[in-house]
Amino acid sequence: MPTTVVLGAGIIGLSTAHSLAALAPPDHRIHIVEPAPKLFSSASGKAAGFIAKDWFAPAIASLGRLSFDLHRDFAQSHNGRARWGFSESISYSLDHTYQPADSSSDTDARAEGVQGAPISQEPPSDDRSSDAQQSARIDDRQTDVSGRSGSQGDSGLDWLLTNQTRATAASSETGSNDTAPSASSEGATVKRDDVPRWLRAKPEALEAISDKTSTAQVHPRRLCEFLLEQCLATGVILHHPARATKLLREEHDPNGRTRIRVEYLGESSDSPEARTRVVDILCESSDSPEARTRVVDILCENIVIAAGCWTPQVYATLFPNASRMPRITHLAGYSVTLKSKHWPPATGLSDQDDTQVPRGTSVEESSSSAPALLLPSPCHAIFTDAAGFAPEIFSRATGDVWVGGLNPSNETLPTLPTDAQIDATQVERLLAVVHALCGDDVEVRKQSLCFRPVSATGRPIIARVHEADLGDGLKPAGLDGQGGVFVATGHGPWGISLSLGTGRVVAEMVLGRETSADVSALSRW
User: Could you give the angle at the alpha carbon of 398 between the alpha carbons of 362 and 35, nearest 5°?
Assistant: First the structure.
């Protein structure tokens, strides 16, 4: 029976396995191998979860549209709002330095949702109420937050690599797209009632850059958990924590098929609340078919490497004589997750609360007494700038607010994502933004550091690897005998947004089908 082994249990690997399980014949076996002792311990569990339809450069645009539609359809089919916080989202660019002509009043207008607060350049001291801190202005390094004069370039990541706001990414597509929301037009007026109550900002300081038809929000870890649950239910086998160490071929195998060796690394540290399970499978070697082992050799026709920032290491381990390697570097990302009394619900799901909404509950069945995550109000995305980085703030239907956008370039990639060490000074920079833009009546629930893979071109790599590039060692043949190694990585900060589309396309590549999106420009690396 044909077998595909997916290396990496992040959202790209899970999306690929999920699509393969849906599209492949019933006898097609699928394995996922993940070395980290805790699942979703990097970007797939700690990212913002912002999803966009048309914020991408031309090379990525087709994949962006496909993935957005799949996210929306998947949420509609599986009650995604209740299960992983899928919600329509409205996006704003914020000029946090805005000062009205008459700024003499110091009345706290938080209750009206209109107060502005410049972002401090330095981390705040213990005295959060310091007027000097709250009114400090950023220096001359500030950038245009409107994004209207920005350029995505061919990669679509120019805004990120130059420490500008993500709002820049919206300008090239939504600024010229005939179907772009009218609210995105230059000088659009934001009404006072439209300002998120958890944000200290005046309506005049905000510019709408998308309406809820083209952007959305999810809780990425919960989406990954649901994808994994779906995969396991269809017979996908998870090896965790485990790693692929070599390719080999049975000496007496008349078909000469390739096997991949998977070595288990120890016990999983995931708690039962994570709703995942680790699978020990029967050894498939001909010597002892019934023996359980910590080393498993799996017959495979296809290997999909979806290991994020760790893709080059995985690739080099399996193909040490390869003539070329995927050029992937890592981009660190700090974030804090907080609770605001101005963003309900207190009883909804959050990073600290694993309460489950009963299956079958839907938006239509909700009432005013139901958790607010089931109510139809949209989430919000706020993009602004500060000295040297571009803060991003996202409210989630799960009841929390995510703040990030600080991407230091000098963080060392750990051997495993669970080995990441958080720098407290970087967190303090984010907390300065939190208190400037969300006030002091917030509770910080979580501090996180994750790593996103970025390619040399700035575009994702979604490709079938030519056999000649793999060197003179063993390699899987593929279902058609033309090579069975595929790479899916390099999504940068758009991994969650592009995940379902990437998984669909890679599954179609493995099965030899026409792809649902044009990724021809992403196959060159």
Answer: 110
pTM: 0.82
The answer to whether residue 145 sits within a structural domain is: no
Query: Which tokens sit at 247?
Result: 């390719």
pLDDT, position 386: 78
The alpha carbon of 116 is separated from its chain's Cα centroid by a whole number of angstroms, namely 30
Q: Are strands 302-305 and 3-7 parallel, antiparallel or unpaired?
A: parallel
Host domain of residue 87: 1-98+152-281+291-345+372-520
- Please answer whether residues 403 and 391 qualify as being in contact, where contact means their C-beta atoms are separated by less than 8 angstroms: yes
CATH number of the domain where residue 463 is located: 3.50.50.60
Chain centre distance of CA 223:
10
CA distance 476 to 467: 9
Give Cβ neighbours of residue 65 (< 8 Å, ≥ 6 apart). Answer: 53, 54, 517
Given its phi and psi angles, is residue 235 left (phi above 0), alpha (psi -120 to 50 degrees) or beta? left
What is the count of structural domains for the chain? 1
CA 35 – CA 10 distance, rounded (Å): 11
Kindly report, residue by residue over 462-521, the tens digit of the pLDDT. 999 999 999 998 999 999 989 999 999 999 999 999 999 999 999 999 999 999 999 999
Residue 54 within a domain? yes
Question: Is residue 118 included in any domain, yes or no?
Answer: no
Q: Does residue 240 lie within any of the structural domains? A: yes
- Residue 31 host element (H or E): strand 29-33
Q: What does 343-394 look like in DSSP terms, one character per residue? A: S--TTS-BTTB---PPTT--TTT--TTS-GGGS---EEEEE--BTTB--EEE
Q: pLDDT tens across 33-55, in order?
A: 999 999 999 999 999 999 999 99
Three-state secondary structure of 432-469: HHHHHHHCCCEEEEEEEEEEEEEECCCCCEEEECCHHH
Report d(CA 378, CA 246) in Å as an integer. Answer: 48
